[in-house]
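Lecture 7, part B: from sequences to assemblies.

Below are the input chains for today's worked example.
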Amino acid sequence: MIDWRSFEELRVNSGMLHRRSELVEQAKGFGRASVRTDLAVEARDLARERLGAEPDGIVSDEEKGDFARAITVRVLTPEAERVTGKRMGTYVTIHCPDIRVSQKEAKEEVAKFLSSKLSQMMAELGIGPEDEVLVAGLGNWNATPDAIGPTVVGKLLVTRHLHRVLPPEKRGGLRSVSAISPGVLGLTGIETAEIIASVVEKTRPRAAIVVDALAARSTTRIGTSVQIGNTGINPGSGVGNRRFGITADSLGIPVIAIGVPTVVDVTTIVMDVLGAISRGEDQNIAELPPERMRDAVVNMIGPDMSQMVVTPKEIDVIVEMMSTVVAGGMNTALHEALTEDEIYEYLH
Amino acid sequence: MIDWRSFEELRVNSGMLHRRSELVEQAKGFGRASVRTDLAVEARDLARERLGAEPDGIVSDEEKGDFARAITVRVLTPEAERVTGKRMGTYVTIHCPDIRVSQKEAKEEVAKFLSSKLSQMMAELGIGPEDEVLVAGLGNWNATPDAIGPTVVGKLLVTRHLHRVLPPEKRGGLRSVSAISPGVLGLTGIETAEIIASVVEKTRPRAAIVVDALAARSTTRIGTSVQIGNTGINPGSGVGNRRFGITADSLGIPVIAIGVPTVVDVTTIVMDVLGAISRGEDQNIAELPPERMRDAVVNMIGPDMSQMVVTPKEIDVIVEMMSTVVAGGMNTALHEALTEDEIYEYLH
Amino acid sequence: MIDWRSFEELRVNSGMLHRRSELVEQAKGFGRASVRTDLAVEARDLARERLGAEPDGIVSDEEKGDFARAITVRVLTPEAERVTGKRMGTYVTIHCPDIRVSQKEAKEEVAKFLSSKLSQMMAELGIGPEDEVLVAGLGNWNATPDAIGPTVVGKLLVTRHLHRVLPPEKRGGLRSVSAISPGVLGLTGIETAEIIASVVEKTRPRAAIVVDALAARSTTRIGTSVQIGNTGINPGSGVGNRRFGITADSLGIPVIAIGVPTVVDVTTIVMDVLGAISRGEDQNIAELPPERMRDAVVNMIGPDMSQMVVTPKEIDVIVEMMSTVVAGGMNTALHEALTEDEIYEYLH
Amino acid sequence: MIDWRSFEELRVNSGMLHRRSELVEQAKGFGRASVRTDLAVEARDLARERLGAEPDGIVSDEEKGDFARAITVRVLTPEAERVTGKRMGTYVTIHCPDIRVSQKEAKEEVAKFLSSKLSQMMAELGIGPEDEVLVAGLGNWNATPDAIGPTVVGKLLVTRHLHRVLPPEKRGGLRSVSAISPGVLGLTGIETAEIIASVVEKTRPRAAIVVDALAARSTTRIGTSVQIGNTGINPGSGVGNRRFGITADSLGIPVIAIGVPTVVDVTTIVMDVLGAISRGEDQNIAELPPERMRDAVVNMIGPDMSQMVVTPKEIDVIVEMMSTVVAGGMNTALHEALTEDEIYEYLH
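Predicted structure of the full complex, as structure tokens:
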């Protein structure tokens, strides 16, 4: 006799247990304001807040455009890795707070920033202009806040199949690019990381780029930032809390991760409010003992709550717009033949 | 010269301003625990908490099944309307906490409860078994948490066009049913309420049923409850905060509203935590002065936050499942020819 | 007892009976090569073939671009209407045979042609730059070949709801535009024409533009042509064979129809082959008696076949591309503030 | 300088060249009535017609239900393989001509036939009730007639990820099933066969089941038949004309193919009409010399026409219904715990 209840509970809860214990740990660290973020720049800012100073082993750099900024955060030492929770490597965040209410030029600037930073990162990783690249769009296409990866993949200029039948002189600056949307564990029964690894083994690209929806610390990041990193995808990141890493180690080739924040964890929001109150910030509220706060939060983090995200009502508009911007930037970085002016060329 | 900024800001913010001022009012009422819910049963419970007693003018009733309960809340007086924020009328909430981890029988029980309560409400409103009914699926089909209305509409047995060409003896217990998904203001430029009113005027159905995604007070309600009410849709309700009512007054025919909670407002979550702390509940935490809490919350409610919702990561699975349950229950209530055993018949 | 069979047959066949008798009539006219097309330019060419000369009452005009041509066909007399089967009025077809294998400039040229011809037609109909326009995207969004109308609507710059809250000096050249996708009879139970009429009565726009997928005579027209006409939608046109007209007569306001061919009727293909054989064209095949051909065709046109369409396998790519081109052209024609260079502006 | 034209032509035409030369060959064979079909039962019937007798090496068998029939065709010899164009093996076609206009029982009978035939085929291939199975849904989810594979996959009870964390006594008759929708070459740049092979190598299932949309010879097969075969997918089959085989040879494990006809090739329709005329069937039309017919057909088969399919207008309804039937049958065959009465259980 089939035990539907235990089966269904497992279905519902898979991925949840892992995350929950992590959250309880996180909440215990409350007072040290340990909230979750997939963005290195936010992790750096949290470390700064906690330490009251720039953490050692982190070098930052900022470039300003007319509408957007590109902030580069380098995590250089194991200590910096521990403090930020971000693996040693380089993370560029392009941030354009007003992108939704701005004219076309703002979107183009973000796409150009992304294109130039991605080109630079590929060059640093030794990926030449003719090297084949596999793009993987992570996430669940059925759930809007998790759909940015597959949506970007649907807008890419995919060429691998054409490359194979064209003589080199006809390729004219178009790189060989393949692209998959592997789905999520609940849909396939197979870990995303496994599917990507198997396709890499079979098709032997020179590098992989993974595109994913991210969880930010602050709602102001949703739909306004793009992060490019050279360390791949690490366990626990993403809207769906990817369970296994997708990295140079696991794939055997360089992995660049491009992410767009679309959600904030509910627990982050709650801890943020409590933090504001306990620190007496903004409101000059007297401090409440941190342990009481912590208990309140731990109590709130039921298995339900750890599976909840905060997302804007108009998330569909944000995913559509940002996937166009990201695909535009990726297309021009991947294909030399496309100039900056043609950043949206292929999308027409 | 076009002022894109003001235009785009308007686009982004339309619907937001209205809601924000309401939220600030709500937050000011904090301490009186005024949090938002579209569910009458939650509104009743909040009133109970505040008053420490059953509010006057509210009569409740409960029916138990093997898996689910049906709780009927009748708001009988203007005073009860004021206290609950729900218009005078009848609201039935079918609640099945374990529906996701239960076998098929639980889903069928919810569909049957829905069918029987809907039939009863239609009879009370004088809607006969041959009277034509228009169903409207509210919400934005592009954003998963707001898509339940259009998804239900896609699963209904629509017959109005066939009815017109069939002789009565061939109709065999199938009612004339039409169904529209009017979209949302941002997609059409027209108020949902206006589109429905115009179709009602043209096609002259005897009654309307509107299906919508709801905001609950508690995350435990998401995907586990269905509410049926005889007062239609009131301004401010739903995931997208409908701006105009869809009621017997505005349409000139009876309006039944069926809703499934898919989100909780972020502000509700935050106020809930603060409430728990301030009341010292669960945690024996000393009270913080309510006015300090209130200031903290008002401060947090920026225009961003009031457009944010809390929703489960697996919202796509919930919307798919609950829309099947709701459509199954509606099909059997609407069409006499379908028996309870055929509750999912048409869906195959 | 419900008679499911007659009900279901009706569901399946609704719309079919009408069309079938029409097809049999058409086939009887075979030898006079009466094949179906929604394109006036093809209807003119068929009339030319039959008559061996330019039919009376038809005036044509052609404009050439670098990639595309715009052919204007004016049907001026009742006799010309009878001969072509197209209502008296003006039809512009923009044709770009290589649009799929051409660079971006070709797509932009088609969008600009469309924009300029649409502007001109609106001016001729007395529609001023500030007059409100309702756009209706006809067709079934679930069936790719019939989805072009709703897809175009999803890419329009909809402004009616913003207009109402903006002072005139802030509107800066953006017209008030609303847009609906009314669905198809099988989904709603309501005639598309009825829904549009009811929304027109309620919102009182100055003019309507309906966008629809068309049936062409020749497969070379699929995804390569756009037709703009000032006579609205006539019964029997479109992929789904609209059953009622959507015209100035039925709505009380000017109606412009924009269509993109996505299918050819199966019967057209068959009659085309038979015609080629019977006329001994291309192949120098001896003539077969036309009545034998006719019998063969009439025999083939079962109820099944009359519901079949011919469409390219890559129809999804065609619908996506052409809906972007059409929406780009419409956005610039509708909103003075958008220049020709910004033809795809809003789409980013 | 990038040669967009050659690149785009390649994009549009990839997959087309292969098929075209095949079609010209086929047309040359005209008179021998060589038309394309993916259904073995139709290929047998065509061979019968040509030979005027049952071809050697083919054994057929038929089982009748109340609504449907299951016809088993065994291709036993290399000669039979040559004559039918179907690889040696077993093909079961379940045919229910009235499935769309019939009550629920007809759909259930088809699902039960499928379940029982699939179980039997798995047993014959030595696949035990606990062996892991990978399901692959072939085809393009963006184009309705090619979407049946991915749609079925979305309705399967996927369990592999749960199996790994459940003790055997808790699995209660649920097999380990994984499922992927690999997309099509134009979307990924990678051959579907390559993606499946790589996932098989990585996850090591005991067998694979591929689900695909098929091309039939006759429009009466569309949406009324399901074929189950034990020879996998062969090059040239399917709506998209799969270019590489997916077979026991290429994957190293047994491959069962399940297919639903959703289209007929345009050339098939044309050759059918010509055949009917030339054979003087039905109409007593005098024979036209076959070589003239052939020339006419070869002339018609341009690169455009060979990429065209014939499909019903209501293909969306057919794909939705048949994917439910197929997924229902597969779920009960794959999971012992599901009884025949629960054929649609999981779908609720």
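Note for the exam: The two ends of chain C are 55 Å apart (CA to CA). Keep this in mind when comparing with the next example.
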